[in-house]
Amino acid sequence: MAKFRVRVSTGEACGAGTWDKVSVSIVGTQGESPPLPLDHLGKEFTAGAEEDFEVTLPEDVGRVLLLRVHKAPPPLPRPLGPLAPDAWFCRWFRLEPPLGSPLLFPCYQWLEGAGTLVLREGAAKVSWADDLPVLERQRQEELQAKQKMYWWKTYLPGWPHCLDEETVKDLDLNVKYPVVKKTKFSLKLGSGVAELKLKGLLDRTGLWRSLREMKRMLNFRSSPVGEYVYKHWQEDSFFASQFLNGLNPVLIRRCRLLPKNFPVTDAMVAPMLGPGNSLQAELEKGSLFLVDHGILSSIQTNVINGRPQFSAAPMTLLYQHPRGGPLLPLAIQLSQTPGPNSPIFLPSDEKWDWLLAKTWVRNAEFSVHEAITHLLHAHLLPEVFSLATLRQLPQCHPLFKLLIPHTRYTLYINTLARELLIAPGKVVDRSTGLGIGGFSELIQRNMEQLNYSVLCLPEDIRDRGVEDIPGYYYRDDGLRVWEAVEQFVSEIISIYYPSDESVQDDQELQAWVRDIFSNGFLGRESSGMPSSLDTREALIRYTTMVIFTCSAKHTAVSSGQLPPPTAKGQARPEGFVATLPPVNATCDIIIALWLLSKEPGDRRPLGIYPDEYFTEEAPRRSIATFQSHLAQISRDIRKRNQDLKLPYTYLDPPLIENSVSI
């Protein structure tokens, strides 16, 4: 007869407690105890409670290995009847044996209905570190159960595969928004819709009467950044700065040779370059940069309110004066085919011609950003990483413990997007220039050229040749965050993987990488994505990429019509307004962007891990070091931002969410 003290922690979320009865079986090296009720006078397992119980084992089970948790309805009807919640969010169990140190069993899961859950003692273990059949069997059974729960499906041809669920109602409780977060999300959506309906804008299918009228819509949720943009949006320096620090800061690259289909001449740009300078000289100096939206060439477009929409595939040449000053646009061509119907627009052109050309570039930037940079790179790929993690790594695996905070709510928000945003007839289809057909085509095109190096920020910066362009805060802050994540990951990997061979021998790790390669990158070897990992260095790089993509990259790119002109000298203020989307489509998009730009509560910034999956001292020290590193980065960013007219805050660590959750 051995007495154990059992402490149980219930989550604090709304509905986390339960009226159901809970018992535990203790599994050891010499056997397994019968179910031992966790019961005392009064109600157990209320939200936020930590409760102690004493249980007696009829026989010694040896060294404790597992805790089997049983949950069943109470013998008497619940006090509130069928309305009473039966789900229970358990944070952890702590088991104190008669002799020896307490054992912590992390859980951090919802248990819904009657059933049994098996928990491992908290020390992280790679697959080759388990040498007992009972532990090996537990890993296999856990993965088999999760692979039955989380299936892959093809949403659209050529897209990364995704979770096989139709609606958020069908999701497992462990990946859903909690009640409070879901309510805040719905209220925020409702308030935006109501305000624009009351203003008579949301249902108006006509065109805007003026830019001043358009500001009525933007005022529905004004901000200092919005006011700054409204004041400066026509300026060349602001237009160029958006390629560095705007919503899509990943396309600009140094130009050493002008594309043959972009025939800019010295005479065209002489007013900007100044006397004695030439294009060739500036190309050799490295002071010219190119943003090419060629992926939009001949893309499928949409029909909104019965009117066909149009898209440009522009090329934009930018100039950074070697002696300082802002980055400025030199020339814009709105198609990939030069000729009489595709003139090169210049800053010296008539005001409205030049402004219209810049606006078509911004329109192209919106399409590429929303379909590729945001939807594909910052939502669909993180879903792949999240789903593979759940399917291939057991909860005791060190990589699971490291990565699970960076998967939080990703499956929920992406399933919701497939319901409300990118499904036929929804926001993207009814209100964007490309519609879901064009979006899908863009994603397919990018998937065919997507390369591993694009997802690794240091290599991407190097490949685009933008290491030294001034005022590129996305690069500066992003590289510092990448370095902090990489250092943290390196420390964790070094704890659990003593050699390259230990990486190669971890079959669960290799299955995780294969799952991502096959279902995320569709087995395309030209992507450069590994299908296996052979060294600790490769594992560190890969895991850093996954965490950065799911956190910093997503935050950086998500926080903030008539045909394009074929001749110059024809643009006027009224014609410019006529090229803008109709009122209802504009409002539709503004509501969606506003809704998705900020977390509806329940935030967990990068490096904040309230769910303590790691129980050993070494990884806990690494987490503390990581948090300290991020805090210093934040202090430096905030100090720099004090001197900026438009502060760059997207990669300030406290504002970076751990995961793609909105």
From TrEMBL:
Ca(2+) 1 binds at G15, G17, D86, A87. Residues 125-662 form the Lipoxygenase domain. GO terms for cellular component: cytoplasm. Residues 2-125 form the PLAT domain. The keyword Metal-binding applies. GO terms for biological process: arachidonate metabolic process; lipid oxidation. Binds 1 Fe cation per subunit. Pfam families: Lipoxygenase, PLAT. Its main location: cytoplasm. Fe cation binds at H374, H379, H554, I662. Pathway: Lipid metabolism; hydroperoxy eicosatetraenoic acid biosynthesis. Keywords: Calcium, Cytoplasm, Dioxygenase, Iron, Lipid metabolism, Metal-binding, Oxidoreductase. GO terms for molecular function: iron ion binding; oxidoreductase activity, acting on single donors with incorporation of molecular oxygen, incorporation of two atoms of oxygen. Its cofactor is Fe cation. Gene3D superfamilies: 3.10.450.60, Lipoxygenase-1, Domain 5 (1.20.245.10), PLAT/LH2 domain (2.60.60.20). Ca(2+) 2 binds at D39. The keyword Oxidoreductase applies. Belongs to the lipoxygenase family. PANTHER family: LIPOXYGENASE. This is Arachidonate 15-lipoxygenase B isoform X2.
